[in-house]
Design a protein that fits this description.
The complex is a heterodimer of chains A (321) and B (495). Chain A is α+β, with helices and mostly antiparallel strands. Chain A has two domains: 2-82 and 264-308, Immunoglobulin-like, CATH 2.60.40.2250; 94-261, Roll (C8orf32 fold), CATH 3.10.620. Chain A is 18% helix and 36% strand. In chain A, strand 12 and strand 13 (244-245) form a beta hairpin. Chain A is globular. Chain A starts with a strand and ends with a helix. Chain B is of the alpha+beta class and 495 residues long. In chain B, 28% of the residues lie in helices and 23% in strands. Chain B starts with 40 loop residues before the first helix and ends in a 6-residue tail after the last strand. Chain B contains 13 helices and 23 strands. The chains are: A alpha+beta (321), B alpha+beta (495).
């Protein structure tokens, strides 16, 4: 499927700021399931952007503006050719998860991380343990957890903040795509399935129902789903928000332990006042003619730049060796 | 005042060393038979001639000197830090020239191997991990592993430009490495100030000895930092980045900037424009090439690390990734300071340098190895347990000094989180006379030498000797009642 993606980020500050510094991760990656035909990130005002690969092999672009301003606009435009992804052709026994080499190779995706925290015996682990009870293969464990996440959470816009913990999520009973992904990661890791977070774009007007008619042009936000490591096979991509597998409509930006490793944008500014980021993703299927109006506009929480702090006695005292 | 060890040796003659007991451990000054080791012959003669009154007078002069210069250290209690005058004992520590040469070669070797490992890990193919020299899972799970450091170019592959390697001397008289400090080791300013005070107050002591100078540290450091400028830039602009005046080592940061003749800055004095770091000066913005930073990785840049950092420079990581500035020490050295990596340093030396370690580690048991754990927990009352993520003695359990309850608590903590602990044989640190209770008594000590690496590696002669000022104590940390000594490396051994 050939998709055109246009991601516009508009930073607005309530008071003029003298400096803003941001990291942006919005470029689709090249891999065996997708090919980037073109990509460009532009800014208004025009800036010299620095583009590098980070530890997770995600393209990160540094965007800094050091003159008085009240707004900053970034536009990422990409053309991507996607291919279907495959379903595991094997059904390894759950005991294969405990093999030393397999665990060691996937260690980062087996332990708690910043946004994926759980503790021995807590509600996350208990819920996961009962969900996978009786599952006779790793893929069945995974499907059982994804189904349980969908039973635990209702999809609801603006229901959570980025700092929400997994037990709080279960307690609140609602979330957006990041929350579905984080809860699934925590439950899977707690039962020994290596699982990682995927940030990307989803060509769907309704991210909770992939089989609905999606039209040819959608206005959305960045999306999040997961990949799990199946012993002897490889990474299997699933989308807990809608319960399906990730496929041609999913465009990957990058993977990490959780949202914190692949946030679309992260930054700070110098000045008083508050920052607002309006972000919109337009995705079009590039076959026939696109309709004039996009359908639907869900939104997921995005990190908003924070003011730079300038003094902290405790922090000063804490640095020593 | 009776000593528990019984067969104590008493120095001959009359005076301050009369009741000196050298039997507790390897004594730096006296042989087991009571004779004086050759390096110390003149020093012992001089101190035998001194009376209590004179030593007290000299001690006061030194304290007065430190007070006048504002040479203090901070003891953190509850919330507020308390400033104390820096404690220095007058009896110097001497290291014979040949002994020092061997030690310095060992320290260079160790830092070279650790730099190879850091370069391999952050900028190479991770060969040591692929070849199983260090288990991959151990490094990946380290709190000190800084993912943002991956791919940042480091001139000369010198990730650790300033290392402080803590060494101790055990009962067999051999030096061993106790701890590696490759992030922000402090203490060098006290080394230089100790020497300045000694030279001023006890000038006569130096008459009989050719002692390697201490004031060469600042030029050595400056040369090292200059060699770290990106793209070999000439006359690079260097700054020292401090967390601020509330940091316990602020005195040292100011001292180093002043003695190198470079700017001392806080995060807010620097700014990033177009992925280049500038310093705000009265002449306007001046490009910065090398930052000797004394703040932790996590606080360097609020964009990419802790967003609540009030100490860092927004955009600094971008400037590093662009290769426009060098930060010394490089990002991510904490992975080597993780004590779980320490037991593998000998193998890293063999792997990268194809040589046997010149200085060994203290015998260490890895708690993540079930057999070693079982053995160590069985003898925990004779051993020392250390949390892998701490430094400066925090959280350390000394088996022979611990109660049954403390031992039981440590055992269950280790069983619960074996990755977080190492257990070591207890080292009876070597002893040296120190002035206490109106005489010279034996006190335990360690040594933190400083190793500088840029285009080349140099070991500063000597280092910080810390001394436990309580009888029998093995705790040398100044925050816990430790003192210091001027450390003399002799230029040659024959008089």
């Amino acid at each position: 499927m050939r998709l055109g993606i246009s991601y516009r980020m508009h930073f607005r500050y309530s008071e003029p700021v003298t400096e803003s510094q941001n990291e942006v991760r919005v470029r689709p990656r090249d891999d065996e399931h997708q090919r980037v035909l073109s990509y460009q990130l532009t800014s208004r005002p025009v800036l010299n952007l620095l583009s590098v690969l980070d530890y997770w092999d995600t393209v990160v672009e540094h965007v800094g503006l050091r003159s008085s301003h009240t707004e900053l606009e970034l536009l990422a435009e990409a053309q991507v050719e996607t291919a279907p992804r495959s379903t595991p052709s094997v059904a390894p026994d759950p005991s294969t998860l405990t093999e030393e080499d397999f665990r060691s190779a996937h260690l980062e995706y087996l332990v708690p991380s910043q946004h994926v925290g759980w503790a021995s015996g807590d509600v996350v682990e208990q819920r996961a343990a009962s969900a996978v009870a009786g599952a006779e293969s790793v893929p069945k464990m995974v499907l059982a957890v994804v189904a349980d996440v969908r039973a635990a959470l209702l999809y609801r816009q603006d229901s959570t903040d980025i700092g929400v913990t997994l037990p709080e999520l279960i307690d609140g009973g609602a979330g957006v795509c990041q929350d579905f992904a984080h809860l699934a990661l925590g439950m899977l890791r707690s039962v020994g399935v290596p699982a990682r977070y995927v940030s990307g774009y989803l060509f769907a007007a309704d991210e909770t129902a992939l089989d609905a008619d999606q039209g040819d042009l959608v206005s959305v936000q960045t999306h999040a789903w997961i990949e799990v490591a199946v012993p002897g096979w490889g990474w299997w991509a699933l989308d807990p928000t809608n319960g399906g597998e990730a496929g041609e409509r999913h465009v990957v930006i990058g993977c990490g332990r959780d949202y914190g490793d692949v946030p679309p944008v992260r930054g700070v500014f110098t000045g008083s006042g508050v920052a607002v980021v309006d972000a919109e993703v337009l995705i079009s299927r590039q076959t026939g003619f696109a309709p004039a109006q996009p359908v639907s506009k869900p939104s997921a929480p995005l990190s908003v730049p924070t003011p730079v702090r300038t003094s902290d006695r405790q922090q000063q005292a804490a640095q020593q060796q | 005042m009776a000593d528990v060890s019984g067969d104590g040796f008493s120095g001959p003659g009359t005076g301050l060393l009369d009741e000196y007991d050298a039997s507790r451990a390897y004594d730096e000054v006296f042989e087991p038979d009571g004779s004086v080791r050759s390096a110390y012959t003149r020093i012992v003669e001089r101190f035998r001639d001194l009376g209590v009154t004179e030593l007290r007078r000299l001690e006061k002069l030194v304290a007065e000197e430190f007070r006048r210069q504002g040479i203090t250290f901070t003891v953190y209690s509850e919330e507020e830090g308390t400033e104390r005058i820096w404690p220095m004992d007058l009896f110097p520590r001497l290291i014979a020239a040949a002994e020092w040469d061997e030690l310095a070669r060992g320290l260079s070797q160790r830092v070279a191997a650790l730099n190879c490992f850091l370069a391999d890990f952050y900028n190479g193919d991770g060969e040591a991990l692929a070849d199983g020299v260090v288990p991959r899972w151990l490094v990946v799970s380290s709190q000190g592993f800084e993912r943002n450091a991956v791919g940042i170019r480091v001139p000369h592959n010198a990730h650790c430009n300033i290392a402080g390697i803590d060494v101790v001397r055990g009962a067999d008289g051999r030096y061993r490495v106790l701890e590696d400090n490759l992030r922000n080791p402090s203490g060098i300013s006290y080394v230089v100030e100790n020497r300045a005070a000694m030279a001023k107050v006890c000038t006569w002591l130096f008459d009989d000895h050719a002692v390697q100078p201490a004031e060469q540290y600042a030029p050595m450091l400056r040369t090292t930092l200059e060699s770290m400028a990106p793209d070999g830039r000439d006359s690079p602009h260097i700054v020292v980045l401090t967390p601020g005046i509330f940091n316990s080592a602020y005195f040292e940061h100011a001292f180093l900037a002043r003695s190198m003749g470079v700017e001392l800055v806080e995060g807010r004095d620097l700014v990033v424009d177009d992925h280049t770091v500038y310093s705000r000066t009265i002449e306007g913005l001046v490009r910065v090439d090398v930052i000797y930073r004394r703040i932790d990785d996590d606080f360097l840049d609020p964009v990419s690390f802790r967003p609540d950092s009030a100490l860092g420079v927004p955009g600094l990581l971008g400037a590093l990734r662009a290769g426009n500035v060098s930060v010394c020490n490089a990002l991510g050295n904490g992975v080597v300071d993780d004590k779980a990596v320490y037991p593998y340093v000998g193998d890293l030396i063999r792997y990268y340098l194809g040589a046997e370690p010149i200085i060994d580690n203290v015998t260490t048991y890895m708690m993540w190895d079930p057999e070693q754990r079982a053995e160590a927990l069985n003898r925990l009352d004779e051993l020392v347990a250390k949390p892998v993520g701490e430094s400066g003695g925090t959280g350390v359990l000394i088996g022979p000094h611990a109660t049954e309850q403390e031992l039981a608590a440590a055992r269950s903590q280790i069983e619960a989180e074996p990755r977080e602990w190492i257990v070591q044989e207890l080292v009876q640190l070597s002893t040296l006379p120190a002035f206490a209770d109106d005489r010279l008594e034996s006190r335990h000590l360690d040594l933190r030498p400083f190793i500088l690496t840029g285009e080349t590696t140099e070991v500063f002669p000597g280092g910080l000797t810390r001394v436990a000022m309580r009888r029998g104590s093995l705790i040398v940390n100044s925050s816990k009642g430790g003192g210091s000594k001027d450390t003399w490396v002799l230029a040659h051994d024959s008089p």
